[in-house]
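Here we describe the complex-level prediction in full. Unlike the single-chain runs in Section 2.1, the two entities below were treated as one system.
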Amino acid sequence: MENLDYARLQMAFTLGFHIIFACIGMVMPFFMVVSHHKWLKTRNPIYLKLTKAWLKGVAIFFATGAVSGTALSFELGMLWPEFMKHAGPIFGMPFSLEGAAFFVEAIALGFYLYGWKKLPEKFHWFTGIIVGIAGVASGILVVSANGWMNAPSGFDYINGEFLNIDPVQALLNPAWFTQALHMTLAAFVATSFAVAGVHALQIFRGKNIELHTKAFKIAIVFGAVAAFLQPLSGDLSAKDVAGRQPVKLAAMEAHYETQKGAPLYIGGIVDEEKREVSHKIEIPGALSFLAFGDFDAEVKGLNDFPDDELPPVAIVHYAFQLMVGLGTLLMLAGLVYFISLKKKHWLKSRKYWLLFIITAPMGFIALEAGWVVTEVGRQPWIIHQVMRTEDAVTPMPGMKYSFFFYLFLYIILGITVTWLMNRQMKALNKEE
Amino acid sequence: MLYIVLFFLLFSLLLYVLLGGADFGAGIVELFSSRKNRKVTRDTIYRVMGPVWEANHIWLIILLVILWVGFPAYFNVMMIYLHIPLILVLLGITIRGVAFVFRHYDAVVDSSQIWYNRLFRIGSLVTPVFLGMSFASLISGKIIITDDYTNYGFYDLFMEPWLHLFGLLIGLFYAALCAFLAANYLIAETEGEVRKLYRKKSALYTVVLVVLGSVLLIYGYFAGFIFIEDFIHNPISLISVGISGLLLIPLWRSIKSGSKIWSRYLAGLQAVLVMFAAIIAHFPYIIITAEKELSLLENLAPEATINNLALMLLIGGLVILPGLFHLMKSFNMIKILNKSNPN
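The structure predicted for the assembly as a whole is:
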């Protein structure tokens, strides 16, 4: 593998790592303030205990997200100096706003973490809400910057130069809304199912059932609702990609031949050499309908794009299938939760809790797969149709070592955080 | 509008050096304390810095974003040729950041605390040293900017610019500055015996700082570093350092008398003056390479970008600064309340 491949692997790995912590730091504050609100309303000490337990989790995740985010803002420049040299002045606006939002989040978190019994109760609770809102705003802004890479706008590219720069237009690029919507919902789905799953595991083991049931109920609602909204947002995204990045859509579907009334493939094994897909289930006309809202519309296939502009098809196709498949399962799990609101006896069944233990990691796997679709699907471009990734990479050799260094550091960090969460849980159960 | 951007660039640099630096310094003070005093320092740091430490370090991100949006060519040079020292800085930031949170938020207090403490303290020392070395490489005259990477060895391009005695001295000087700030800051946060301890520490780090600063200037001058020569010949820099030197007298007195407020502000002011002297000595040519000097003001981002950035910074500043001020003020007031009511 070359320097470029290692640089890409490092970027993918560090982003993939950061995204998990960023999502948890963005969504968990909402669970925390709901529980805090219930404590203020009912004065049931279980809610206070739960709030404080979640709060410790948020502090740990936020700090890990903050340091890995700091590393990323350096990495953008360290790995892709040529990209940042030209892109920085154009898509800097979401980052400067994000810096402000992140700052607000850190300030509010300072109030919230250290304000117990020291600040007026309502104000203290309110700072928790600010943490959540500022976190979501940060997420949206960063995704908008990514949207610009998929849908570059706010400049004219003439003879290799970036002229007539308009930062506002770059911020409001054509992809920002669909991407930000899809990602925000995904963050809620992934975090909710992960948190609910962790508490379901405790209930399954028969530990501190009252507290964990309350925790489960608060967490799962967000995820179940978001899981139902996600397909709608996914449909918007698909139509958007079909219009702007037809080659990415074709790769998602491993769609080689241009045709009218194109079928949708479910599953299938991609042979990139022979350019065909075997072992798939075909739904006639469905791809045309999903992409353009018309069963007979023509969908351009990969064979009609220049060879040197094709992304790695198999990876993108499999990742897309994985994302959609897991998303569908999570929607069904959400449905089970909604039905259990009526059929309360389900909560006594061990199978019910087992289901939510199984779904716990699915949201994050789907979310990571979704980012693989977005990022690998854009290759070989770093700025779609403007700059190639190979032209952006750092001239410094030896990225291999840098990659393994980050891999080692973040794996240790990931293990430590997981271990800490386990200790939190044990301590929480022991106090009872 | 460019001036607004420059103002925020210097402002966030200054705040990062002062607040983030005091944060690093607290870890350094803890590292070089006796076993008994470490515990005291650990608790004081948590109480004083806990609410603000995340905010302190966001100034670095703001600084970085201003650089890449407004000064892309400059940022480009830093990111290519400072790759290795910056990785080391990031390693330090990551380790001490998570260790700080782990040691205070781990639900179980057991022997793993030893590791959190170790990593926090060591991270607190090496991070400012590597930050200093990164800055040093910008002004060392050793960076070779080229498009032809086959002509040079890896060591010449990516190691030589930062790995030298001058860089190490600047790194150590910055670390000492951090410890100096932290010790003076902590005087006002403590009472009785503990305060005596920090008064001693303040005196110690003041001496270390002055000695290191002198060694740095003398070595830099005789080793022929352009930056140091220009620093010594720049009247404004000299006046700043001179005032900073004169301020040592009242600082020393206030440390001896244990004044709550003065040592903190005097130390802060001295750090600002030293920073100002260093920046103004060569402004705007802050990158000195083997062949030429690069101006911060050349190859700026287009005007539309600068205007937009200035506006965003103003809006951001309006939102952040009152909040930050309120945060610091709230927890200061709380401390006073706590004193009157120990529970």
